[in-house]
Amino acid sequence: MNIILLGPPGAGKGTQARILEEQRGMIQLSTGDMLRAARTSGTEMGKIVADVMDRGDLVTDEIVIGLIEEKLEGDHGGGFIFDGFPRTLAQADALGTLLEKHGTKLDAVIAMEVNDDALVQRITARSTCANCGEVYNDMTKPQPADGKCTNCGGAEFKRRADDNAESLKQRLMEYYKKTSPLIGYYYHARALEPVNGLGEIDEVAAGIDKALG
Ligand code: AP5
Ligand code: MG
Predict the structure, then answer these.
(1) Which residue of 32, 39, 99, 152 has the fewest C-beta atoms within 10 A of its own C-beta?
(2) 170 CA from centroid of ligand 1 (Å)
(3) Nearest ligand to the C-alpha of residue 36?
(4) Candidates 18, 39, 122, 171; catalytic one
């Protein structure tokens, strides 16, 4: 099964992707994580995208489609969870073509519905494990009291450079202008499954589970 988690910044895409990996043996493909890894390892591409990401703008279609194309060559596991990809109509078309080339298809697009107030609260309280990327939240999922990541035991946590009020405003604008048209695109393709993203993490996971059957 291949699915897209579609939703604005802070909707909970990364959080739910990790749950799906655990429960269904699927593989998370987060273009945001891939781009951040390229920055950390100092690749040429990482340097090109750094300022764009920190401003909250979208990286070019060419770069992110290239990243996804590479991953589709690898292990398919229990299917892919596309997290934060596609984000433009051109990326959506490219994904369809790539999946077809690999003899597979898209099974569902989970549209995570969360209002802007909740997004701001979630993002400004977020931190992640520097080692494995496990996502925490000062309010709803605090870092463990012993200072060790519950997933890998790592002791270093970080906050993202684009998790500030100004970049978030731009990220939301980019979402509404360029990504939200994908809701109509996938509705037309009869793949859209809207899920209420406002409940507790477990409740949202149950909503996704039900939508996927
Ligand atoms: P990306 O990394 O994809 O960021 P994003 O889309 O802005 O989404 P986030 O990762 O911020 O949020 P999320 O939905 O994963 O939420 P999370 O689970 O962490 O992209 C970053 C940048 O890279 C882009 O701005 C762009 O520059 C570039 N980029 C990436 N992909 C691209 C593409 N395809 N094309 C072009 N450019 C691209 O949760 C957020 C917080 O809320 C956490 O603290 C979490 O613990 C908490 N939380 C989660 N669920 C709940 C819940 N149900 N209740 C309460 N709290 C919750
Ligand atoms: Mg994410």
Answers:
(1) 152
(2) 14
(3) 1
(4) 171
- How many Å separate Cα 210 from the centre of its chain? 20
For residue 17, how far is its CA from the centre of ligand 2 (angstroms)? 9
Q: State whether the beta carbon of 127 lies less than 6 angstroms from ligand 1.
A: no
Residue 75 tokens, joined: 């292990």
- Confidence band, pLDDT 50/70/90 cuts, at residue 76: confident
- Quick one: pLDDT at residue 75? 81
Out of 39, 87, 159, 169, pick the active-site residue: 87
Element (H, E) at 100: helix 89-101
Q: From the alpha carbon of 60, which atom of ligand 1 is closest?
A: 36
Write the pLDDT tens digit of every residue in 133-163.
899 999 999 999 999 999 999 999 999 999 9
**What is each CA distance from 156 to 106, 132, 134, 135, 138, in whole angstroms?**
36, 10, 11, 12, 15
Residue 55 a catalytic site member: no
Instruction: State the Cα torsion 68-74-76-77 to the nearest 10°.
Output: -120
Catalytic site includes residue 126: yes
Cβ within 8 Å of residue 174, ≥6 positions away: 56, 57, 58, 87
Q: What is the pLDDT of residue 59?
A: 98
Ligand nearest to the CA of 171: 1
Are 111 and 194 in contact, with CB atoms under 8 Å apart?
yes
Residue whose pair of structure tokens reads 């037309």 in the numeric block: 188
Distance 135 CA to ligand 2 centre (A): 9
Give the sign of the dihedral formed by CA 81, CA 184, CA 206, CA 171: positive
Residue 161 has which token pair? 């450079």
